[in-house]
Automatic annotation (TrEMBL):
It holds the Pfam family PdaC. Keywords: Signal. Residues 1-21 form the signal peptide. This is Deacetylase PdaC domain-containing protein. InterPro entries: PdaC. Residues 34-105 form the Deacetylase PdaC domain.
Amino acid sequence: MNWKKLGMIALLSTLAVPAYAKVVTGSQTDMNMDLKYPLVYTENAIAQTAINTDIAAYVGEAKDAYYNRHVYQVSQSYKVTYEDKDVVSLLLTTYYYRAGAAHGSYRTRGMVYDKRTGQRVPLYNYVKIASAKQLDTAVRDGVLSFYTSTRKRTYLPQGWHVDYASDNYFLSGKGYINLVYQPYELGPFSYGNTFIEFSPKAIEYFNRMNS
């Protein structure tokens, strides 16, 4: 089945929202499925369609896991992390629990959209990163902050390293940018998602190094 197409129909059918709305919640449920996802409303109909088509793909993946791959439990949630007249920044988390597993698993995707075009804004529009080693060094030196899923600032645990430069990111306001890493990538499962945060000063430093 074309889940992307079906998801898009469901998303757009719920977009009868007041003109002042920016992001509203769409939902689809079944016995062991609870999906809550963002529906983004913009003044530009083409941009609005592009954004919600992109989001629909992630909703479709979650439904495919539930109905076709028979994952026991699937849920989805989101958070608006920042919005202004030009962009909207979202975090979308999909949780999967397979029958008999010791615990569930989840993946979190940061999505920053240009509200005028509907396209994703690439990370390099904000900050230039040359390598994973550059990130690893900056985290260890305190130039970049490292957070667990509960937003507790901490250090990279012993034996863990930044092995790749993530382009999965979100905006958190006041010029701050957070790179998103999945569970087990930069720490044990108890850390959950981990985040490497760039302050405006760190962004200037990286862009100066890598210009």
